[in-house]
Amino acid sequence: MPLWASQSTAIVQQHVKQITGIVNDTSGAPVIGANVVEVGSTNGTITDVDGKFTLNVSVGAKLKVSYIGYNDQQITVGNSNSLLRVRGLGTMGDASAMVVVDGVESTMSSVDPNDIENISILKDAAASAIYGVRAANGVILITTKKGTKGRTIVSYDGYVGWQSASRMPKFLDSYNYAVLMNEAYTNDGLKGPYDETALQKFKDGSDPDFYPNSDWLGTLLSENGLFNNHHLSIKGGGDKVTYSLAFNYHDKDGLIVNTNYNKFNVRANIDAQINSRLKLTTNMAVYRSNMTAPAAGISNLMHYDILSGRFRHTGKENH
Fold first, then answer.
1. SS3 at position 184
2. What's the rounded Cα separation, in Å, for the pair 153 and 161?
3. Nearest CA to 163 among 229, 228, 82, 227?
4. Helix or strand (DSSP H, E) at 152
5. Residues 6 or more apart from 276 whose CB is under 8 A from it?
6. Which residues of the chain have pLDDT under 70?
7. What is the distance between the alpha carbons of residues 264 and 259, in angstroms, rounded to a whole number?
8. What do you get for the CA distance between the two ends of the chain, in Å?
9. Who contacts 176 (Cβ-Cβ below 8 Å, separation ≥6)?
10. CA 88 from centroid of its chain's CA atoms
Protein backbone atom coordinates (compact mmCIF):
# COMPACT_ATOMS: atom_id res chain seq x y z
CA MET A 1 0.00 0.00 0.00
CA PRO A 2 1.48 3.40 -0.95
CA LEU A 3 1.95 6.35 1.33
CA TRP A 4 0.92 9.81 0.19
CA ALA A 5 2.91 12.76 1.49
CA SER A 6 2.23 16.44 1.10
CA GLN A 7 4.81 19.13 1.78
CA SER A 8 4.92 22.90 2.30
CA THR A 9 8.12 24.91 2.51
CA ALA A 10 9.24 27.94 4.53
CA ILE A 11 12.71 29.33 3.90
CA VAL A 12 14.68 29.64 7.12
CA GLN A 13 18.12 30.32 5.65
CA GLN A 14 19.54 30.56 2.15
CA HIS A 15 20.69 26.92 2.30
CA VAL A 16 18.24 25.29 4.73
CA LYS A 17 14.48 24.85 4.50
CA GLN A 18 11.95 23.90 7.13
CA ILE A 19 9.70 21.21 5.69
CA THR A 20 6.21 20.84 7.14
CA GLY A 21 4.03 18.10 5.73
CA ILE A 22 1.36 15.46 6.26
CA VAL A 23 1.59 11.72 5.56
CA ASN A 24 -1.69 10.04 4.55
CA ASP A 25 -2.60 6.54 3.43
CA THR A 26 -4.61 5.75 0.30
CA SER A 27 -7.90 6.47 2.07
CA GLY A 28 -6.71 9.91 3.12
CA ALA A 29 -6.35 9.01 6.79
CA PRO A 30 -3.24 10.36 8.60
CA VAL A 31 -0.43 7.87 9.28
CA ILE A 32 0.77 8.11 12.89
CA GLY A 33 4.43 7.34 13.63
CA ALA A 34 5.66 7.22 10.01
CA ASN A 35 9.41 7.74 9.66
CA VAL A 36 10.55 10.80 7.69
CA VAL A 37 14.34 10.77 7.16
CA GLU A 38 16.71 12.82 5.01
CA VAL A 39 18.28 10.29 2.63
CA GLY A 40 21.96 9.65 3.37
CA SER A 41 21.84 11.09 6.89
CA THR A 42 20.48 10.45 10.40
CA ASN A 43 18.40 13.63 10.25
CA GLY A 44 14.80 12.55 10.68
CA THR A 45 11.55 12.65 12.61
CA ILE A 46 8.24 10.81 12.96
CA THR A 47 4.70 11.97 12.23
CA ASP A 48 2.41 13.00 15.09
CA VAL A 49 -1.17 11.90 15.81
CA ASP A 50 -2.39 14.02 12.89
CA GLY A 51 0.19 12.59 10.48
CA LYS A 52 2.13 15.88 10.49
CA PHE A 53 5.91 16.35 10.55
CA THR A 54 8.43 19.22 10.57
CA LEU A 55 12.09 18.86 9.58
CA ASN A 56 14.98 21.20 8.70
CA VAL A 57 16.87 19.96 5.63
CA SER A 58 19.18 21.38 2.97
CA VAL A 59 17.95 22.44 -0.46
CA GLY A 60 18.06 19.52 -2.90
CA ALA A 61 17.85 16.88 -0.17
CA LYS A 62 15.58 13.85 -0.52
CA LEU A 63 13.16 12.81 2.19
CA LYS A 64 12.28 9.13 2.62
CA VAL A 65 8.88 8.39 4.15
CA SER A 66 8.40 4.86 5.44
CA TYR A 67 6.04 2.85 7.64
CA ILE A 68 5.54 -0.85 8.31
CA GLY A 69 3.21 -2.40 5.75
CA TYR A 70 3.47 0.50 3.27
CA ASN A 71 5.62 1.21 0.24
CA ASP A 72 8.35 3.80 0.80
CA GLN A 73 7.91 7.28 -0.65
CA GLN A 74 10.63 9.82 -1.53
CA ILE A 75 10.22 13.60 -1.78
CA THR A 76 12.82 15.99 -3.22
CA VAL A 77 13.15 19.34 -1.47
CA GLY A 78 12.97 22.14 -4.03
CA ASN A 79 14.69 25.52 -4.08
CA SER A 80 12.64 28.52 -5.08
CA ASN A 81 9.46 26.56 -5.83
CA SER A 82 7.63 24.75 -3.07
CA LEU A 83 6.81 21.15 -4.02
CA LEU A 84 3.38 19.74 -3.24
CA ARG A 85 2.67 16.07 -3.82
CA VAL A 86 -1.00 15.32 -4.18
CA ARG A 87 -0.58 11.57 -4.65
CA GLY A 88 2.11 8.93 -5.05
CA LEU A 89 4.87 8.78 -7.68
CA GLY A 90 3.61 8.80 -11.25
CA THR A 91 4.97 7.13 -14.36
CA MET A 92 6.52 10.22 -15.99
CA GLY A 93 9.47 10.52 -13.59
CA ASP A 94 8.15 13.82 -12.20
CA ALA A 95 5.95 13.46 -9.12
CA SER A 96 5.04 17.13 -8.76
CA ALA A 97 1.47 18.24 -9.33
CA MET A 98 0.44 20.25 -12.37
CA VAL A 99 -0.28 23.89 -11.47
CA VAL A 100 -2.98 25.76 -13.42
CA VAL A 101 -3.50 29.49 -12.77
CA ASP A 102 -6.66 31.02 -14.27
CA GLY A 103 -6.82 28.20 -16.81
CA VAL A 104 -3.16 28.40 -17.90
CA GLU A 105 -0.40 26.00 -16.79
CA SER A 106 2.07 27.84 -14.58
CA THR A 107 4.11 27.46 -11.36
CA MET A 108 3.42 28.20 -7.70
CA SER A 109 6.19 30.80 -7.55
CA SER A 110 4.65 32.83 -10.37
CA VAL A 111 1.65 33.76 -8.21
CA ASP A 112 1.82 36.12 -5.26
CA PRO A 113 -0.21 34.81 -2.27
CA ASN A 114 -1.98 38.18 -2.01
CA ASP A 115 -3.48 37.64 -5.49
CA ILE A 116 -5.02 34.23 -4.79
CA GLU A 117 -8.79 34.03 -4.46
CA ASN A 118 -9.22 30.26 -4.33
CA ILE A 119 -7.21 27.00 -4.50
CA SER A 120 -8.68 23.61 -5.32
CA ILE A 121 -7.14 20.22 -6.05
CA LEU A 122 -8.05 17.57 -8.60
CA LYS A 123 -6.69 14.05 -8.34
CA ASP A 124 -7.30 10.52 -9.57
CA ALA A 125 -9.35 10.14 -12.77
CA ALA A 126 -10.85 13.63 -12.58
CA ALA A 127 -7.48 15.28 -13.23
CA SER A 128 -6.45 13.03 -16.12
CA ALA A 129 -9.84 13.27 -17.79
CA ILE A 130 -9.53 17.06 -18.09
CA TYR A 131 -5.78 17.70 -18.44
CA GLY A 132 -4.43 14.42 -19.80
CA VAL A 133 -1.32 12.44 -18.82
CA ARG A 134 0.51 15.54 -17.52
CA ALA A 135 -2.01 15.58 -14.66
CA ALA A 136 -1.23 12.02 -13.51
CA ASN A 137 0.13 13.40 -10.23
CA GLY A 138 -2.83 15.68 -9.59
CA VAL A 139 -3.69 19.27 -10.48
CA ILE A 140 -3.61 22.38 -8.32
CA LEU A 141 -6.16 24.89 -9.62
CA ILE A 142 -5.54 28.51 -8.60
CA THR A 143 -8.03 31.28 -9.24
CA THR A 144 -6.80 34.84 -8.80
CA LYS A 145 -8.82 37.78 -7.51
CA LYS A 146 -11.20 39.64 -9.81
CA GLY A 147 -12.43 43.21 -9.83
CA THR A 148 -15.63 44.20 -8.05
CA LYS A 149 -18.26 46.80 -8.80
CA GLY A 150 -17.82 49.91 -6.68
CA ARG A 151 -15.30 52.55 -5.80
CA THR A 152 -11.61 52.03 -6.55
CA ILE A 153 -9.72 50.36 -3.70
CA VAL A 154 -5.93 50.72 -3.50
CA SER A 155 -4.05 48.51 -1.02
CA TYR A 156 -0.39 48.05 -0.21
CA ASP A 157 1.40 45.35 1.76
CA GLY A 158 5.14 45.23 2.35
CA TYR A 159 7.87 44.13 4.70
CA VAL A 160 11.62 44.49 5.12
CA GLY A 161 13.95 42.26 7.14
CA TRP A 162 17.22 40.40 7.26
CA GLN A 163 18.45 36.89 7.92
CA SER A 164 21.59 35.38 9.40
CA ALA A 165 22.98 31.91 9.91
CA SER A 166 21.68 30.28 13.08
CA ARG A 167 22.75 27.23 15.08
CA MET A 168 26.18 27.22 13.48
CA PRO A 169 28.32 24.21 14.48
CA LYS A 170 31.10 25.11 16.90
CA PHE A 171 34.41 23.59 15.86
CA LEU A 172 37.64 23.37 17.79
CA ASP A 173 40.57 25.48 16.65
CA SER A 174 43.21 23.52 14.75
CA TYR A 175 45.64 23.27 17.67
CA ASN A 176 43.14 21.70 20.09
CA TYR A 177 41.80 19.45 17.35
CA ALA A 178 45.32 18.11 16.72
CA VAL A 179 45.92 17.62 20.47
CA LEU A 180 42.73 15.58 20.84
CA MET A 181 43.51 13.54 17.72
CA ASN A 182 46.88 12.62 19.22
CA GLU A 183 45.16 11.67 22.46
CA ALA A 184 42.67 9.45 20.62
CA TYR A 185 45.47 7.66 18.78
CA THR A 186 47.40 7.20 22.04
CA ASN A 187 44.34 5.68 23.72
CA ASP A 188 44.25 3.11 20.91
CA GLY A 189 47.93 2.32 21.39
CA LEU A 190 49.00 4.15 18.24
CA LYS A 191 51.32 7.03 17.51
CA GLY A 192 49.62 10.38 17.13
CA PRO A 193 49.56 11.94 13.62
CA TYR A 194 50.88 15.34 14.78
CA ASP A 195 54.37 15.85 16.21
CA GLU A 196 55.45 18.74 18.47
CA THR A 197 56.56 20.86 15.50
CA ALA A 198 53.15 20.56 13.86
CA LEU A 199 51.39 21.34 17.14
CA GLN A 200 53.48 24.48 17.63
CA LYS A 201 52.78 25.70 14.08
CA PHE A 202 49.05 25.14 14.57
CA LYS A 203 49.26 27.07 17.82
CA ASP A 204 51.27 30.10 16.70
CA GLY A 205 49.96 30.32 13.10
CA SER A 206 53.49 30.68 11.68
CA ASP A 207 52.73 28.45 8.64
CA PRO A 208 49.07 29.02 7.64
CA ASP A 209 49.47 27.33 4.24
CA PHE A 210 50.31 23.90 5.65
CA TYR A 211 48.99 24.31 9.20
CA PRO A 212 45.82 26.41 8.73
CA ASN A 213 43.40 27.75 11.29
CA SER A 214 40.57 29.00 9.07
CA ASP A 215 36.84 29.35 9.66
CA TRP A 216 35.67 28.28 6.22
CA LEU A 217 32.02 27.84 7.17
CA GLY A 218 31.87 31.24 8.88
CA THR A 219 33.55 32.81 5.86
CA LEU A 220 31.05 31.19 3.49
CA LEU A 221 28.00 32.33 5.48
CA SER A 222 29.37 35.77 6.20
CA GLU A 223 26.49 37.95 5.01
CA ASN A 224 23.31 39.21 6.68
CA GLY A 225 20.84 38.71 3.86
CA LEU A 226 18.54 41.70 3.52
CA PHE A 227 15.12 41.05 1.97
CA ASN A 228 12.09 43.12 1.09
CA ASN A 229 8.70 42.47 -0.46
CA HIS A 230 6.17 44.96 -1.86
CA HIS A 231 2.65 44.29 -3.12
CA LEU A 232 0.28 46.90 -4.59
CA SER A 233 -3.25 46.15 -5.76
CA ILE A 234 -5.94 48.30 -7.39
CA LYS A 235 -9.52 47.01 -7.66
CA GLY A 236 -12.81 48.52 -8.71
CA GLY A 237 -15.29 48.87 -11.54
CA GLY A 238 -18.66 50.00 -12.76
CA ASP A 239 -21.75 48.49 -14.35
CA LYS A 240 -19.94 47.45 -17.52
CA VAL A 241 -16.29 46.92 -16.57
CA THR A 242 -14.55 45.61 -13.44
CA TYR A 243 -10.80 45.36 -12.98
CA SER A 244 -8.14 44.02 -10.64
CA LEU A 245 -4.51 45.10 -11.07
CA ALA A 246 -1.66 43.78 -8.93
CA PHE A 247 2.07 44.46 -8.77
CA ASN A 248 4.56 42.55 -6.65
CA TYR A 249 8.33 42.88 -6.18
CA HIS A 250 10.48 40.60 -4.02
CA ASP A 251 14.25 40.90 -3.49
CA LYS A 252 16.40 38.79 -1.19
CA ASP A 253 20.16 38.70 -0.61
CA GLY A 254 21.72 35.42 0.47
CA LEU A 255 24.06 34.57 3.32
CA ILE A 256 26.85 33.98 0.79
CA VAL A 257 28.61 36.87 -0.92
CA ASN A 258 27.14 37.76 -4.33
CA THR A 259 24.02 35.59 -3.96
CA ASN A 260 20.59 37.04 -4.60
CA TYR A 261 17.05 36.16 -5.66
CA ASN A 262 14.48 38.61 -6.96
CA LYS A 263 11.20 38.39 -8.82
CA PHE A 264 8.63 40.74 -10.30
CA ASN A 265 4.95 39.99 -10.93
CA VAL A 266 2.29 41.98 -12.75
CA ARG A 267 -1.27 40.68 -13.01
CA ALA A 268 -4.35 42.24 -14.61
CA ASN A 269 -7.85 40.72 -14.57
CA ILE A 270 -10.46 42.72 -16.51
CA ASP A 271 -14.11 41.76 -17.11
CA ALA A 272 -16.20 43.73 -19.61
CA GLN A 273 -19.92 43.14 -20.17
CA ILE A 274 -20.27 44.06 -23.85
CA ASN A 275 -24.02 43.33 -24.02
CA SER A 276 -26.55 40.99 -22.47
CA ARG A 277 -25.12 38.02 -24.39
CA LEU A 278 -21.43 38.81 -24.63
CA LYS A 279 -18.89 39.15 -21.82
CA LEU A 280 -15.17 39.68 -22.43
CA THR A 281 -12.69 38.45 -19.80
CA THR A 282 -9.00 39.27 -19.95
CA ASN A 283 -6.44 37.65 -17.65
CA MET A 284 -2.88 38.88 -18.17
CA ALA A 285 0.18 37.96 -16.12
CA VAL A 286 3.86 38.86 -16.42
CA TYR A 287 6.45 37.11 -14.28
CA ARG A 288 10.22 37.56 -14.18
CA SER A 289 12.70 36.06 -11.72
CA ASN A 290 16.48 36.04 -11.44
CA MET A 291 18.76 34.07 -9.15
CA THR A 292 22.47 34.67 -8.61
CA ALA A 293 24.14 31.65 -7.00
CA PRO A 294 27.43 29.69 -7.16
CA ALA A 295 27.78 27.47 -10.22
CA ALA A 296 28.80 24.52 -8.04
CA GLY A 297 25.57 24.74 -6.06
CA ILE A 298 25.10 25.83 -2.47
CA SER A 299 24.59 22.24 -1.26
CA ASN A 300 28.04 21.25 -2.56
CA LEU A 301 29.67 24.28 -0.96
CA MET A 302 28.04 23.45 2.38
CA HIS A 303 29.20 19.84 2.12
CA TYR A 304 32.85 20.73 1.54
CA ASP A 305 32.83 23.53 4.11
CA ILE A 306 31.50 21.27 6.83
CA LEU A 307 34.11 18.62 5.98
CA SER A 308 36.90 21.18 6.30
CA GLY A 309 35.25 23.07 9.15
CA ARG A 310 37.21 21.34 11.92
CA PHE A 311 39.88 24.02 11.48
CA ARG A 312 38.00 26.83 13.15
CA HIS A 313 39.83 29.91 14.36
CA THR A 314 39.76 31.29 17.89
CA GLY A 315 41.80 34.40 17.26
CA LYS A 316 43.44 35.76 14.14
CA GLU A 317 42.00 34.28 10.97
CA ASN A 318 44.21 32.99 8.15
CA HIS A 319 42.81 32.18 4.70
1. helix
2. 27
3. 227
4. strand 150-163
5. none
6. 1-16, 26-28, 68-70, 78-95, 124-127, 296-319
7. 17
8. 54
9. none
10. 21
